[in-house]
Every structure is written in C-alpha cells, then in structure tokens.
Amino acid sequence: MDQLPKTMRGFRLEAYHQPYVYHTDLPVPSPRPGEVLLRVKAAGFCHSEMVHYENNFPGGKVPVIPGHENVGIVMAIGEGVTEFKIGDRVGTTLFRQTCGDCDVCRSGTTNLCDTRENAGINSDGGFAEYMRADVNWTVSLPDEMQFVTAAPLMCAGSTIYNSIIRAGKPKGSIIAIVGTGGLGYLGVQFAKSMGYRVVAVETRQPPTELLLSLPPHLAPDLIINPRDGIESALASISSSFDSAPGVAAAIVSTDPLEAFSFATCIMAKQATMVVVGQPRDPIPFSCNDIIFKDMIIVAGMPSLKPRLKEMVDLVVSAGVQVEVRSYPFEKVAELIKDYHDPGLKGRLVLMVE
C-alpha cells in the first residue's frame, strides 16, 4: 500500500434520484483480510444501479460509490490471501464479506446471507479508481478477455448463467429467454452453448437485430414476438419443436409484468419460471397455473464463485459475443442518459482507466 496514492477519483451517489457527484479526493480503501485491492479498469452499469438510484433496492444506502460489475488489476493483497498476486487480472461480482455462520452460509448459498455487503449498493463499488474485492467472489480473467467485455459478465453474465442452471432442465430441453436486452442476449448464447433448444421472446427491434446477427451455434432456434399473441406463440413452438406443448423453462429477464404473464402462458406443465426481472409491482401469478400446471418458480441470482468461473470459461470457449457501449470515466452522466434509450443494444460500461 505504500506505493499507492492516498486519494482517488470517483463518483458517489449522495442522494437518491440525484446525479452522481464527482470527487477527486476520495480515500483509497485498504483491503481487509480475505480481500484484494483492485485498480478498476472497467465497471458495468447494471439495472440494479438504477433500482438503487431510485431507492428501490432493499438494504441500499447513501452516500455510496456505485458499480458492482467490476474488473481490474490486483494492486494490494489482504491478510490471508494466497490465490491472487499483485498484477493479476480479475473480475469481481456484487457480494462481499458474507458472515460464514448463518444457515445459508453453512449450506453453501452464501449469496443469500443477510449480512453480506453489496458493492455499489450498501458498500463502495467500482465507479472509482480503486475498490476492495472479496476473494470468495473474485475470479481470474483469461488474458484474451478484454476488460470492457468482461465487466458485464460479473453480474449480468453470472446471473443469467446461474438462472439457466437453476431452471434444472436436462440438455435438449426447450428454454425461453423472455426479454433479450443486455442480460437476455447473453442468456440466449449461454443456453445454446449448453445444449438447450432456445426460444427468444422479444418485442423490440434493436435486440432482435442483434439476435439475428449471431452465428448459428449461438443463435436462438426460434424468435417470438409476444405482440403476435399467445396462440401464435404456442403454434410456433409446436411446429418448431416436434409438437411441444410449451417450453420447459422460462427465464424472465425483463421487468414488465406482461412479460411474466406471457411466460406463464407459453410454459408447459411442470415447467420452471426463473425470476430475474425486478418489477416494482407484485407479479400476478394465478393459483391455477401453479397448481394445475405444477409450475415451479425459482429466483435468478448471481453465481457463486465456481459457477462464475465456469461462465467466464464458457464465454471464451464458445465465443460468446458481449455487446457493449463504453464511455470515458468523465462521461458517466451520458451513460446514465443512454441507459433509458429504448433503442439500446447490449450493456453499458464505464472505462475507469
């Protein structure tokens, strides 16, 4: 730490619904035991950033440095860390400092720990030159993976990859990715690479154009526009997949309640819905769907470390395409403005250095 600066540039959310405030004299943090200090190279702007900005993220606080899709270079090592060394290229996800003692931690599902830190939400994140990273949630990045494309994988990629696995369906099953923006676009490619038959559900033209540009081994088997209606969707699924009565799983990676309703309607009996989208209002499930279709509902959450590493390796081995729009560090306000662009393709990334 002696060679590191004492202060750094960074942005903070200091009041909800207000622009991020730029600082040039924020203190450079020191890594705690079990942590490393990163020189942040790139930080993704995730939907959860906007949820927290609007004061809708449980347990969030201000002031805080935003950013939880972070990649960079290890600059200092905390006590007890042996996995990484100074100079390593790494990526780190949302979580830090889980307790290790509660029921969920002892069961291995530490991403559900009530006392965890959430980078960019209740603990400082990566919209600054340096940040702390918990080694339990940090993975090495392949040399061939650029920082700008690696950043969105740390939440968007890990969440949709984990959601496909959490659906619990065997390879060859029909999986619908409902909403194919930056997160769902990755999900389509992951599911195809993992051996599933994939239905992409999308209403917007820009994401559909991206799907149509994918190489055959990553492209969806079928694209459905919900505006064509339920009957048309079910007929397309049946004709495309050997008279299948619906999909075996629907991963809903968008917020509108209509997306959840549509997903329910195209699901076969005993299908699984994975909830990734974060609508403000309660999701209106019918007891008839749950009981008489034996519908299963599970949560989509960011991956634990072993699965995060699997996902990073899959991106390289399968040639998964990560569509990004990057911004210089000082253009964070422009990035946030573009987040609301209905024609947005892919993910937004702030280049910290």
From TrEMBL:
> Which sequence ranges are marked TM in the entry?
none
Please name the Gene3D superfamilies in this protein's record: Medium-chain alcohol dehydrogenases, catalytic domain, NAD(P)-binding Rossmann-like Domain
Keyword list (alphabetical) reads:
Metal-binding, Oxidoreductase, Zinc
Domain named Enoyl reductase (ER): residues? 6-350
Q: Which cofactor does it need?
A: Zn(2+)
Give the record's family classification: Belongs to the zinc-containing alcohol dehydrogenase family.
**How is this protein named in the record?**
Alcohol dehydrogenase family zinc containing protein
* Biological classification of the source: Eukaryota, Fungi, Dikarya, Basidiomycota, Agaricomycotina
